[in-house]
Amino acid sequence: MQRLCTWGWGLLLLLATTSTHADNFRQAPKAMSALRQGTAMERSNPRQAIAHYCIAASLGNPEAYFRIGRLLARGPQGIRSTRQANTYLAMAMRLGNQQAARYYNERVGNAPLGTCGAGGGSGGAPWVRPGVPFDQEGYLARQSMSKQKLAGMIKQAAKRHRVDPQLALAIAIAESNLNSLAVSPKQAQGVMQLIPETQARFGVTRPFDAEQNIRGAMIYLKWLEKQFGPDWIRISAAYNAGEQAVVRYGGVPPYQETQEYVQRVLYYSGHDQTKKTRTPAR
After folding, report:
1. Could you give the 3-state DSSP secondary structure of residue 261?
2. Is the Cα dihedral 148, 143, 146, 220 positive or negative?
3. Residue of 42, 106, 137, 175 marked catalytic
4. Is 175 in the active site?
5. What is the pLDDT of residues 21-40, one digit of tens each?
6. Which residues, in sequence order, are CB contacts of 199 under 8 Å at separation 6+?
7. Helix (H) and strand (E) counts for the chain?
8. Cα Rg for the chain, rounded, in angstroms?
9. Per-residue pLDDT tens digits for 142-197
10. Alpha carbons 178 and 128: distance in angstroms, whole number
């Protein structure tokens, strides 16, 4: 990625701050109240504190993800789970929380999909209930206007490139929770979290330009469909680990991160996770 000059970084920071403040303003009544209630319960009832933080996290609040992860990492022995903590801390980092990295344990992986704060975590929607299909439209309807706008852009681009919109949105939720300024520890960037190599392959020169980022991702997803057919498992595995890894192993690679990622994408698509294929929308 080309170096940005000083004023460029300043402009990016201003845009990020403005967007964050706008989202916080829209989420403030419910999310801020949940954060306050969680803070009041942390010492006396940490499980209940996590339940309050889950409400704020459901609105995409980075501080809530951080607090859940911190409690699961450093809280009372009865609720500790390093892998579950990592799930929430990783999401907090992707959403811009600067403190989460201090608690993230790189020696272990992230927890599999599960209920918020217990029995596993989720990257995009923390109120996951095992056996209950994810309501993609309902989830999007509860997000800020800026995230709903991004979701609309993804739907339109998916249809334009003949990619199933539900799959495209599931990947966006799993990757960045619809944050156009997200950056992962591996330098994946933007709402669809494209790594620099993928950006170069598909003509993305401005990864934080949501329209360009989304267009590049749709072209990539269509390319993956041509390689693997309408197999959402292999497509999502390739999106995470690279198509060569999927070819080498004849399916989902034996990487914990990729296996859990595929599980999240299938869940967020709103379909049965046992399904191996689905015919894309035409």
Report:
1. helix
2. negative
3. 175
4. yes
5. 444 444 456 788 889 989 99
6. 1, 189, 205, 207, 216
7. 13, 0
8. 18
9. 888 999 999 999 999 999 999 999 999 999 998 888 989 988 878 899 999 999 99
10. 17
